[in-house]
Design brief:
Elements: H1 2-24, E1 32-36, E2 43-45, H2 57-67, H3 75-81, H4 91-102
The protein binds calcium ion (2 copies).
């Protein structure tokens, strides 16, 4: 019985370790970047997909609809939505915006 408990504790520790590794991918979150846009010198505010000065549910919804192929983001919107700066917008970028809105990052 005790061995069973130890196995459960080990499983929980492994799970926590995995969660930590996954979350480490999201940190640090650089919302404001000095990345330059082609053609001008205006910095991009990552996460502010619609460029209205704030990162909120509207940006989350825009990216979500893009990923679901309901609406297509423009090239500039994609640049602002690419939170992890890997050159493409994916569920990871959506999660980062969500975490920012929740105040986790
Ligand atoms: Ca916005
Ligand atoms: Ca990305």
């Amino acid at each position: 019985m005790t061995k069973h408990l130890v196995n459960i504790l080990i499983a929980i520790l492994v799970l926590l370790l995995l969660i930590t590794v996954v979350l480490a991918d999201f940190a640090p979150i650089g919302v404001v970047t000095n990345q330059k846009r082609a053609g001008n010198q205006k910095p991009i505010r990552l996460g502010d997909v619609n460029n209205d000065g704030k990162i909120d549910e509207t940006d989350l919804k825009l990216l979500q609809n893009h990923l679901l192929e309901i609406n297509e983001l423009s090239r500039d919107e994609i640049l602002r939505a690419d939170m992890n700066q890997d050159g493409e917008v994916t569920i990871l970028d959506l999660l980062r915006i969500h975490r920012h809105i929740l105040g986790v990052d």
